[in-house]
């Protein structure tokens, strides 16, 4: 195992020495939130937006942010390798309680953990990936980046077992997002993604793509997408901090357009690659 350095509760230490109590509420209840922040050439990408989402997630679960943004930057930066494309995984749980009780414990210090991984280029980018559509069985706080991911992993696993890269989730006939990604479709020449709300995570990659579309006069709209409409799309993409923009060429048993990544994806991916190398905060 790569015994890299990680951060746990104020200390930098080798991964195999980073230990938490079995009474940690993250372990017992999934009572915590997380962030995944990409880093290009040692600079955290859209750091302020990730911090803003972290703050929203924390306040949604009624946890006080243990650090300000400058402190977070100081904590995370030593984990980065400036020569690589990486991502920081950052998790905060409600902490270690004396007894297992669903109600919040009093006077508990949150557990803070961070580690860094290399971003491996996602396979099959040139040929695209397959996805399945599946009922969105998650809860009503999908806008919170909660570590409570049992529904997401069960949904993703069903996709994997069908040889697919992602599960596209459908609620009441409308597409929400992927199990760990946001969704875009090109329908009648317009780039469409479902609007922000409690049914999806407000993806930072999603925001960057909308901004790039705006700057480059690519027609776009934040609108609901029926599963039936998705099946008529000329392009479908899945987006996330770790996979970036992945073209989907097959949904369930249907081939999308000609079964190859489409022209809008090619343009957007080129613009995104240029943007991520030049635009940091
Ligand atoms: N997941 N929707 C869900 C449910 C996600 O889990 C993610 C990312 C996204 C995309 O968000 P962003 O563009 O900010 O990465 C949307 C991360 C990568 C993860 O859980 O590892």
Strand and helix map with partners:
Elements: E1 5-8, E2 11-14, H1 25-29, E3 32-40, E4 43-44, H2 47-60, H3 69-76, E5 86-93, E6 111-118, E7 129-135, H4 150-161, E8 166-171, E9 174-178, E10 182-187, E11 190-193, H5 204-215, E12 220-222, H6 227-230, E13 235-240, E14 244-251, E15 254-255, H7 263-278
Parallel strand pairs: 7-8, 7-14, 11-12
Antiparallel strand pairs: 1-2, 1-6, 3-4, 3-5, 5-6, 8-9, 10-11, 10-13, 13-14, 14-15
Helix pairs in contact: 5-7
List keywords for this structure.
9-stranded mixed β-sheet; 2 domains; 25% helix; alpha+beta; binds N-(5'-phosphopyridoxyl)-D-alanine; D-amino Acid Aminotransferase, Chain A, domain 2; D-amino Acid Aminotransferase, Chain A, domain 1; globular; 6-stranded antiparallel β-sheet; 7 helices; 281 residues
What does this protein structure show overall?
Strands 7, 8, 9, 10, 11, 12, 13, 14 and 15 form a 9-stranded mixed beta sheet that branches. A 6-stranded antiparallel beta sheet has the order 2-1-6-5-3-4. The protein has helices spanning 25-29, 47-60, 69-76, 150-161, 204-215, 227-230, 263-278, and strands at 5-8, 11-14, 32-40, 43-44, 86-93, 111-118, 129-135, 166-171, 174-178, 182-187, 190-193, 220-222, 235-240, 244-251, 254-255. It has 281 residues and is an alpha+beta fold. The protein folds into 2 domains: 5-118, Aminotransferase class 4, branched-chain amino acid transferase, N-terminal domain (D-amino Acid Aminotransferase, Chain A, domain 1, 2-Layer Sandwich); 129-279, D-amino Acid Aminotransferase, Chain A, domain 2 (Alpha-Beta Barrel), CATH 3.20.10. It contains 7 helices and 15 strands. Helix 5 (204-215) packs across helix 7 (263-278). The protein binds N-(5'-phosphopyridoxyl)-D-alanine. The site of N-(5'-phosphopyridoxyl)-D-alanine has 14 residues, from helix 5 and strand 13.
């Amino acid at each position: 195992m790569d015994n890299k350095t990680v951060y746990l509760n104020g200390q930098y230490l080798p991964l195999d020495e980073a230990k938490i109590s079995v009474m940690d509420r993250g372990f017992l209840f999934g009572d915590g939130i997380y962030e995944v922040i990409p880093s290009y050439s040692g600079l955290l990408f859209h750091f302020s937006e990730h911090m803003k989402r972290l703050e929203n997630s924390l306040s949604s679960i009624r946890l006080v942010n243990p650090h300000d943004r400058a402190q977070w930057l100081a904590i995370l930066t030593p984990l980065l390798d400036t020569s690589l494309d990486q991502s920081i995984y950052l998790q905060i749980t409600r902490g270690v309680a004396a007894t297992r009780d669903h109600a919040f414990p009093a006077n508990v210090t949150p557990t803070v953990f961070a580690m860094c991984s290399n971003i491996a280029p996602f396979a099959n980018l040139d040929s695209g990936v397959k996805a399945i559509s599946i009922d969105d069985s998650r809860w009503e706080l999908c806008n919170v980046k909660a570590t409570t991911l049992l529904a997401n992993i069960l949904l993703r696993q069903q996709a994997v077992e069908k040889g697919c890269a992602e599960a596209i989730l459908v609620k009441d006939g409308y597409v929400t997002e992927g199990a760990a990604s946001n969704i875009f479709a090109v329908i009648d020449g317009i780039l469409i993604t479902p609007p922000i709300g409690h049914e999806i995570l407000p993806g930072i990659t999603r925001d960057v793509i909308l901004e790039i579309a705006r700057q480059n006069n690519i027609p776009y709209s934040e609108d609901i997408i029926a599963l039936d409409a998705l099946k008529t799309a000329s392009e479908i993409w899945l987006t996330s901090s770790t996979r970036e923009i992945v073209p989907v060429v097959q949904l369930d048993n249907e081939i999308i357009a000609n079964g190859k990544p489409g022209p809008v994806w090619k343009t957007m991916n080129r613009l995104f690659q240029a943007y991520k190398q030049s635009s940091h905060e």
